[in-house]
Amino acid sequence: MAEVGFILNGRTVAVNPRPGERLSEALRERLAAREVKIGCNAGDCGACTVLVDGAAICACLMPVQQAAGRRVETVAGWGDDPLAQRLSAAFLDQGAAQCGICTPAMLAAAVALLRAVPAPGVVQVQEALGGVLCRCTGYRKIIDAVLQVAGGPADIDRSGSVGTSPQRIDGRAKVRGTEAYGDDVAPAGCLELRIIRSPYPRASFRFGDLVAYAARTGLAAILTADDIPGRNVFGVIPAFADQPVFAVGETRFRGEAVAAVVGTPGALHGFSQAGFPVDWAELPSVASVPAALATDAPALHAGRAGNVMCRGLVRRGDAEAGLAAADIVVEGRFSSGFVEHAYIEPEAGFARMVGDRIEVHACTQAPVMDLEGLEIILGMDRSRIRVVPTGIGGGFGSKLDLSVQPYLALAALTTGQPVRLTYSRVESMQSTTKRHPSDLAVRIGATRDGRITGMTFDGDFNTGAYASWGPTVANRVPVHASGPYLIPNYRARTRAIHTHCPPSGAFRGFGVPQSAIAQEVLFDDLARALGMDALEFRMINALDDGMPTVCGQVFEQGVGIKACLAALRPAWVAAQAEVAGFAQAGLRRGVGIAAGWYGCGNTSLPNPSTIRAGVRADGAVVLHQGAVDLGQGSNTVIAQIFAEALGVPLASLHLIGADTDATPDAGKTSASRQTFVTGNAARAAGLALRARLLALRNVDAGRLEFGAGQMRIDAADAVHTVDLAALPVDALGYVASAEETYDPPTLALDADGQGAPYAQFGYAAHLAVVEVDMALGTVKPLRFVAAHDVGRAISPVLVEGQVQGGIAQGLGMALMEEYLPGRTENLHDYLIPTIGDVPPIETLIVEVPDAHGPYGAKGLGEHVLIPTAPAILNAIRNACGARLRQVPATPERVLAAIREAANG
Ligand code: FES
Ligand code: FES
Questions:
Q1: Pocket of ligand 1 (CB under 6 A)
Q2: In Å, what is the CA distance from 70 to each residue of 43, 79, 713, 881?
Q3: What's the pLDDT tens digit per position in 642-656?
Q4: What is the pLDDT of residue 843?
């Protein structure tokens, strides 16, 4: 193939591409321009956006030959570009880069816009950036950042102390494009790996002559279940671990792995599964809960009778008697489908042998859990395994489960060579976990004066082929399905049912967003039937300090739901007047509210985090922070908490990020636990280290300052100087160090689900204003107001970022997202909100401090999604009378509900 030359970031370059090679591949693999990201390789996500002759284009859609003689720009070339630098600074100020995987593309699209239109408006920004998807931010902060370039710096306190909003400490790498994600870290010359996957939901299979195939095709190895030195099983909950690395004899979902091939990039170029020697025989399968429960349904797992994996129950008082005592009872059946995480980064990483140890570098939310899973699969002592999380381009729960890691580790172990693997978008969507589809039957009763007397909740969750986090969903939902309300008589039952679908797992909220839809929509039905204001009805029933939850847990302090509802009240009153005054033919506007709560941390299980810190002889203060930052900001928030406790500026810290060789276990990044649990460990470590340093001069208090090889203690009586270089160094290389652990106090739940499942809850209430097109059935959210009780906002800008990103995901769940195995396995057919879909969001930060939280802080990560969908459904009802009981509320479902409402 002829050489192709072009100008890359001002430098003349030349490549010898294969026929049809994409510009994105040439940039990443031949020219090391890893700042160009690949999210789909199909023109759907925009992550590969670069500028060609000044215009933003998707590099994955452009054959490299079309770049010949042209000027290609990426974020890596803008170190001296004043406009791009102002834009990058604005992204950092506004918190517009969370995971950061979309950031190089967003910056490219924005640079092109700002060069042409120095002071754009919001719509121009939305149009210019409309081709780039972001799954984390909800886009509003990205818009704010682009507007800031013309409007001037934002007035934000960035000092770094608790309660201020410093630029995120890992932010520069994100805006420079140097953050290394799973597909960015493999050394040159790696072998590559492809997985052979089941084309059917259920099939038996038989391999042909694999040895002959490997020899004929020049592969380095073919891996099957026979090549697993340990046990062919993994799962996030040990008692339920049931998923094979490679299926044996029969597959249980479309996309399940049965084998893998390993070879050089040349040997694997153009590899097609079609030529692999495997014979498939499709078998009858069940895709839905009713089908899986049928008496003649095939059993997915021995010992799980009727395909029921597990059940959950919370019972308090007498629910039926409570309903019988009610003046009015409302009921409904609600359903939802699979929701795909749709992070922009597909699962990726590489593994290598280092001596007799194996190292796995991959995107993950849970490095220590990965290590524990690999220990079993590899049959290897954990001391011989190192897991190094790469940057992670979004996780939202799915990257808690193993994906690429076992395949990479087995391949490196087998071949002795480094091996890399990146899932295609289709593989990622086929094979990784989803939000559980739900089928919920709920009844709630209240007296004429608006007090809830009883509630029953029966929920079936489609947990797919393997357990994953299904047990957590089955247990967490009954605890939360009441919402943050006083319900004296309550019974909530759940079942997690196996089907031949991809495993359902953790997705922001562990089933609670689904249950909140049913409960909060029925609360509106109740308020309406009682002739009460929807907010005041919730206020009457809201929990308060000293009241028992449905688990009988009594919080004497820190219950913030009333404060959230009160914060929302002015906007609620104003929005009702606003929508009532709207009149335009064919369109209706409505406003809805919904509330929510979420217990932070594991449910009634040990949940410790450990933080280590030390001072080196040269005066550097080092924080070993093993909690993976998915983009939510834990690197910054935990460091802020530690710095506050130690009494030093945030900017003075040196951060060592997650690495199982270098950081103690800070637990998994899930369940809204990192600010709360790891934050507490960081605070304790900061205080312990401070005490040790002060003790060096026998003082109780004083300001600490670190210089080259020295520490100054500015105490009340005198200024003390410590020559750090003269102190003995410990085994970790520190002259002083501390390591502290925090485990939230919880109590086990009894057979009726009574106990103390969480040390703290966070609370939220959302308001949505929507516009419904009565002819088309389309629903357009116009704005949101979100009140969140975070106890103490460690970083307000990061709080807003979480809220906005969560609302965007809730909007997607409410209106457009449904994963259909075999049908919506890419980002073209599976729709997530774009920059044009997310309206303005006002975040009301409520701070009802929690005694267990570090500086009063509560978790936030999952709360942000929970009230959004029911607020939207309640707003649709308010607009046009249509009662939606199924999400997503697609236009045809909305039209059907409009017709149903019209027919009474
Ligand atoms: S990677 Fe090019 S558009 Fe998604
Ligand atoms: S910050 Fe945009 S995808 Fe994560």
A1: 38-41, 43-48, 58, 60
A2: 21, 20, 59, 56
A3: 999 999 999 999 999
A4: 98
